[in-house]
Write a structure and sequence with these properties.
Helix content: 55-70%
Oligomer: single chain
Number of strands: 0
Number of domains: 2
Number of helices: 13
Shape: globular
Distance between the termini: 53 Å
Strand content: under 5%
Radius of gyration: 19 Å
Length: about 260
């Protein structure tokens, strides 16, 4: 099984390089965000093809992962359609000139492909497992579904808010965004911890690195910190929003 996992790095790097070439044409590396979730779906499909057997747990995983990946990729693509390169990636571009076009291959695309490959380890364990669906699987499936729904509602609420011209420059603080500054990231967090719960019956505890790494990225690297780098300058009301609202885990706002 380790050989399948190791060779899985090849197709994911091919997808990363192909996306990088498209980014050169578009002069927009932020398209990698649309491909991020598809990295995992491509890996899961590759693992499934290579495995001699796909049990009920593996089938359920493929369904859940497909819903999560396609929904997230579609949302990000539609959200960014017709807009210039995301401001976060513009900052990365400025900080890595000259020759960012070449540097972006490994700074953005290969790095994200490697992260997706590492995080995908539990997916292979679940797909390869002949065990029937058990209690921990049902719990994990429930948490994954909750995460997908929670993230989808948060994205929809923010998209609807931004679509109204009168909200330009304002801060979204209603709906799920009333209880957390990043409810979409919290939903993502739930998805990956749910997948890990589906691994527990197999005893592959080393795959704990997957949800831990995803949580670290969301909380400390490319999630909350990167998004909030300059948002106070663009949305003055965000400073007060920070004071009264939890960054990640939903809770009642401070008054």
């Amino acid at each position: 099984m380790f050989k399948i996992y190791l060779i899985g790095l090849i197709p994911i790097l091919v997808i990363a390089i192909a996306t990088w070439l498209v980014s050169l044409w578009k002069r927009d590396v932020s398209i990698v965000d649309s491909v991020w979730s598809l990295f995992f779906l491509a890996l899961a499909i590759y693992y499934s093809i290579q495995l001699p057997y796909l049990g009920p747990r593996g089938f359920v995983l493929l369904v859940l992962l497909s819903i999560w990946a396609i929904r997230l990729s579609t949302h990000i693509t539609l959200r960014s359609w017709g807009h210039p390169e995301d401001s976060r990636y513009q900052a990365i571009r400025r900080n890595n000139e000259p020759n960012f076009n070449w540097k972006s291959l490994y700074i953005v695309f290969i790095l994200q492909a490697l992260l997706a490959w590492i995080i995908s380890a539990p997916l292979l364990v679940i797909l390869a497992s002949p065990l029937p669906i058990g209690l921990s699987d049902y719990l994990g499936i429930g948490i994954v579904l909750f995460g997908i729904v929670y993230e989808s509602i948060a994205d929809w609420q923010l998209m609807r808010f931004k679509s109204k011209p009168e909200n330009s420059g304002k801060v979204m603080d209603s709906g799920l965004w009333h209880y957390s500054r990043h409810p979409n990231y919290f939903g993502e967090f739930c998805v990956w911890w749910g997948f890990f719960l589906m691994v527990m019956a197999s005893g592959a505890w080393l795959t704990l690195i997957s949800p831990l790494l995803m949580s670290f990225l969301l909380l400390k690297v490319s999630g909350v910190p990167m998004l909030e780098t300059d948002i106070v300058e663009r949305r003055p009301g965000y400073r007060d929003y920070i004071k009264r609202t939890n960054a990640f885990f939903p809770w009642l706002p401070k008054h």
